[in-house]
Structure formats: structure tokens, C-alpha cells
Amino acid sequence: MKLNTPRWWYVRDSNHARMTRTALKPLGWLWAGVTARRIARAAPADPGCAVVSVGNLTVGGSGKTPVAREILRLLRAAGVQAQGLSRGYGGRLEGPIRVDPAMHTAADVGDEPLMLAQGSPVWIARDRVAGARAAVAGGAQALVLDDGHQNPALKKTVSLIVVDGETRGDEWPFGDGSVFPSGPMREPLKAGLARADAVVVMLPTDVDAADPELLAVFGALPVFVARLTPEGPPPSGPQVGFAGIAKPWKVERSLKAAGCDLAEFVPFPDHAAYSAENMRFLTDRAAVYDAGLVTTEKDWVRLTPDQRARVVAWPVVARFQDQAAFTAFLNDRIQSAR
């Protein structure tokens, strides 16, 4: 059974849930050790094209998939035959297989690859090397690797880390720095940053600038600011919102900031598969307020066609604050690797 993301993971003060954190520390040390050993022992394969890895240091909620989609768009707009490559988390197919949005469902290939495939060719493969070779055979000149920072199978041209820039109140993207399950980290911060070439800080739409204290964490690494920008306004009238992502409270906050008349918001676990019972509950809540139902694009692709008919998707896209600077950085790294 999937569980909702603990809010205390993203609180910097380790006194929050102190006993739980302490009890889970040994598991975190084990997780970090296994990850470090796997990365150190790997012999990355060269797929024969540029590989842009888009990853994060936490277990989710940073915005890496929208960033991967934007990088695919930028590369393809520049004439590069860029294709996406994902593990296909949550899907039943092992791959390598090219995602077909007209044929595949999230249950087949995972929700994130299905999102990426709306605008670019995308492959899923449990075996990233086999997936990369299939993509190159299919004409890929560059691969955008979604969620690839802790996967050492491929030789990477550029390694990008996406970080949630929300630091207001008691929030901090790395929590107290503890590794899962004691905290949100996939590996220790220092180890993860040491393999990165640049950082993308994803700012909320209603925050003007990145927190200087957060920027200082990244030292000399180049930092690029991006935002999740709605492609349109939320639906009009009262709405019951819901989301099954790593940080569902961010969706609630964003809907309100965009002017949505949000009567209620219901969080679900990340990658939740919405059952008939879930939808009955949401429909009943909407009826109480005479409201519509609104969710994220990532959640909407996990719904059945019948469920989609009752729900409005509110899509957002990543946009870089200085697109020219980011594009120049990316092109320079790709060209220098040839």
C-alpha cells in the first residue's frame, strides 16, 4: 500500500518527528551505502550519443519530469533529434519500447513517460543501456534521461540536479539531510552534488527570487532558475482538487495562487492508481460544494477514459528564467563532448 509523503521530511529542524527520524536512521545509512556502492562499481556504457541526465537528490517533488520535457523541447527546437529515456516506473512493460500515447496507458509505461511522450519521442526500459541503444537505432542524436542521477548505467554528457526552491516557513528541499526513509534524500547531499554539472532550482510562481541560503549550498556549480508555469487558468467556479504526487500540497498552493476557487483539496500517494472507490469519494466531495474536479496532468493520465470525462487537467510546463543562458550551457557541454 502506498503512503502519502510525510510533511516532516521537508522540515529542516530535526526535532520534528524526532523519534521517528531516529528509529529510521539505520535504514537510511543502509540505503546510502547500497547506493554509493552501486554507483562506485558501475562501468557506464557509451550509447553513442549525448546523454543529458535530469535527476534529483530527493525521492520526488522537485519537478524533474517537467524540466526533462522542457529540455527535450529546447533541443528539438534547435534541430537536435532528442529523445527521452525513462525507467517507466509504475508501468508493467519492461521495454525497450517507444511510448505511444495513442496506445499505451500509465499502467503500461508509467505516468511520467506518458507525459513526456506528448511532445517528443520517448522510450522506456528497465535496462537503460538497452533502451539507449534502441533509441539511437531509432534516430536519437541526444538522450534526455529522466530520473537518472542515481542510475550509473550510461555515460552522461551533462548531469543536472533539479531542486525544489520552496524555502518559506519551515520548508527546506533536503529536510534535515537524512537519507530515506529517515528523510527525503536518495543519497547524502555532498555525494549527490559531487556528480552534478549544474543545478536547476524550481521556484514557485509566487516567489520572486531563489533563497540566497539555498544557492550557497551549491557552491561553484552553475545554477539555473526555472518555474512551473500554468498553460492556462484553472477551471472557473468552485473546484475540488486532488493530486497523487510526491508533494501534493504544492499543487494545492499553486491552484490557490493561480486564483482557483478551491473548495477542498484531497492528497493521494505519489503515482496513485485511482480506483472506482477513490473516484466515488471525489465525486461525492464535489457534489457537496456543487464543484468540479481538477487535478494535475500527471494524475490525469493515470485516469481511465470514463474518469477523465469528469475531471479537468490543469497542465503546467517548466520554463527557464534565462532560457538563452541555459541553452548555451547545454549546447556547450554537448558540443565539447563530441
Give the key terms:
338 residues, alpha/beta, 34% helix
Structural class computed from helices and strand pairing: alpha/beta
Low-pLDDT stretches: none
Task: Please state the CA-atom Rg, rounded to the nearest Å.
Answer: 20 Å
Shape: globular
How far from one another are the termini? 46 Å
The topology string of helices and strands comes to HEHEEHHEHEEHEHEEHEHEHHEEH
Biggest β-sheet: strands ordered side by side in the sheet: 3-4-2-5-1-6-7-8-13
The helix content is 25-40%
Would you report the number of β strands? 13
Count of DSSP H/I helices: 12
Strand % is: 15-25%
User: What kind of sheet is the major sheet?
Assistant: 9 strands, mixed
What's the average pLDDT? 91
Write the layout of secondary structure elements.
Layout: H1 18-41, E1 50-55, H2 64-77, E2 82-86, E3 97-98, H3 106-109, H4 111-116, E4 122-124, H5 128-137, E5 142-146, E6 158-164, H6 189-194, E7 198-203, H7 212-217, E8 223-230, E9 238-243, H8 248-257, E10 261-267, H9 276-289, E11 292-295, H10 297-300, H11 305-308, E12 312-313, E13 316-320, H12 323-336
Parallel strand pairs: 1-5, 1-6, 2-4, 2-5, 6-7, 7-8, 9-10, 9-11, 11-12
Antiparallel strand pairs: 3-4, 8-13
What does this entry look like structurally?
The protein is an alpha/beta fold and 338 residues long. The protein has helices at residues 18-41, 64-77, 106-109, 111-116, 128-137, 189-194, 212-217, 248-257, 276-289, 297-300, 305-308, 323-336, and strands at residues 50-55, 82-86, 97-98, 122-124, 142-146, 158-164, 198-203, 223-230, 238-243, 261-267, 292-295, 312-313, 316-320. The strands form two sheets. A nine-stranded mixed β-sheet has the order 3-4-2-5-1-6-7-8-13, with helices on both faces. Strands 10-9-11-12 form a four-stranded parallel β-sheet, sandwiched between helices.
